[in-house]
Amino acid sequence: MSPGNGTMDARRLLAAAVAALAFRSLAFLPVFGGDHGVSETQSGRRQALLTVGLLGLSLQAGEANAYMSRRIAYPPINKEDPDRCKWRTSNIAQANAQREKLQDLRECKMAGTNANDKDIAGALMTKGDFTKVTFKNGIMTKVVAQDSNFEGADFTNAVADRVEFKNSNFKGAIFKNALLTSSDFEGVNVENADFTDAFLDIQSVKILCSNPTMKGKNPVTGADTYLSAGCDIADAGSYTSR
Questions:
Q1: Are 116 and 101 in contact (CB under 8 A)?
Q2: What is the reported pTM?
Q3: How far is CA 31 from the centre of its chain?
């Protein structure tokens, strides 16, 4: 292994460790907004943990941005395959999104289906209908899911890492305690979404908190969308509040 690779691996390990520590700690802290009271001490602790976690994740920002900016030619959709639009779990290398077979869910109509505990890493989900799908405890790594409909979907305790969500609809979605890192939320609709205790990297915080649809209350949990994402924390990131 070259010295350069060793340094990169060390940085990745450090970033992962710091992010994991902050994420686990945040789960025990109170939620902003609603009927929960938050003392100045608790507020300061939450801000500190969030800032440390975001700094750790930023060590991987260059690699993530390079991945998201790549232009890839995808194979044509095989609409003759009767088993194409089904959730399948990969048994190998989740972090690298390697699969035995390409999981092509583009333009699939899968509203109301169950993807709990599924590893759907490396899947193509562009222009799919995933309305009210439950992704609880699921893993989405290096997934392309732009221009898709996730209205009312439940991502509780899920992981979405390096996912292309650009221009997708998350109206009324639930991201409670989810880990959302290095993903593209540009142009998404998050009205009435719930981000309670979700861990967001600094770029996602910046994009989401400046999104005009970051408003309303989740119809299931009652959580305030803007407050649940921590957008009221003035020094959580360099974004501009609405």
A1: no
A2: 0.68
A3: 19
